[in-house]
Amino acid sequence: MNIERATFLSGGFEHANIFFKTPSIAANFAASPVWETANRTVSWGAIGIWGLQQWLRSRQFEAAVQAYEAGGCNQAIAGFKSFDGNPEVEKVRRQCRDYQAIDPATQKPSEALAKAMQFLKAHPSNAFSSTRKEASLGNPLDSGLKQQFNAHLKPDRITDWLSMEVCQQIQKTTENPYISLAMKLESSGILPQSEESLPRLYHACGNFLVASKDLPGGIALFEIFLDNFPNHPYLNSVKRDHAMALIQDAKRNPTGEIPAPIATTSTSDGSTQVVIRNDSPHALRIAFAGPTSQVEEIPACKDCKDYTKATAPSSCPKKGPVKTYKLEPGGYQVLVKAISSKNWDASKLGVKELTQTELKQSAEVAGVRPFTGDWSFGMGQKYQSCFFLIRE
User: Fold this and answer.
1) Which run of H or E residues covers position 263?
2) What is the pLDDT of residues 273-320, one digit of tens each?
3) Alpha helices in the chain (DSSP H)
4) CA-atom Rg of the chain in angstroms
5) Cα dist. 265→132, 192, 273, 288, 327 in Å?
6) Separation between Cα atoms, residue 229 and residue 251, nearest integer Å
């Protein structure tokens, strides 16, 4: 209320001063029910607009998520444009950037496949898997890669898929140490006819790495093949390539020479047999590369020892374990090397055969050179050989 003063004049004289209160227009209006109603209307209107904006923003986010999960990177990136700083959105952007860099329609098969393997390793899951219960477990962009690669990658031209990057990466693990990139390739369906093309890729990559002088890498791929595809039609070919790679790898350093064994008798069934006794305290790995190729292990001799030139026996001590191998007659390259490992007991090799994974954990015995030689076997003959170790 405002206090105002009024003066009344009568006959030229001031008769009285009267003070009275009058409400101002603003105060009067603010106190009126009309103003209160308008104020509430504006407030609820602002809340309604904010709520609508949030609803529209939520709808935009959901639409972008759905676009991503359907493999629509362009639509997803556009929909997420106003969501900078969201960690899942940043994941989507990284995934889409790497996904869109893969184009098997225009890139060399080896280049596109290498990029796809990098993608599978870097982005194994849905960007929203940790925040949305309904999110798919795998990466939704994998299905797009599957369609592209199945349309453009030719299984009958598998040599076009090969490169150092592809072949060296295929044996490596992902974020899960029990899952290799090759397993991810197979499960994603990116490789056309993966049931057939994956073992062929292992074999072709093994030979590619051997030819590129990465012998350990090639050997590892042959051994993965042998462990996982024991009944494959290419088995004998892989066995030969594996044996040859082991011999080639051993010959990178000086090796001893194994004299060819002499036939001791004929076999009753007409087969060609090679009998080998291990009279050394170390397990032996033996590779035959020829008409029949195989790589075998012989357990260590528990009661045997290393000899010196002065203590070396004049003939086979005949103490150690014996293994007999049936081979096709013909010429062979042969490797014998002593192996050991802290992960398995060399004396138990005859009881339980080691897997290729366990054998990869083995190493050559320090100070013991591998031995190589060229052997020739006749039909229906039995050959015998004995190994013991003389340290110089």
Assistant:
1) strand 263-266
2) 999 999 988 889 999 999 999 998 888 888 888 888 888 888 888 888
3) 25-30, 33-69, 73-79, 87-100, 109-122, 142-152, 164-169, 181-188, 194-211, 215-228, 235-250, 356-360
4) 40
5) 74, 52, 10, 21, 15
6) 28
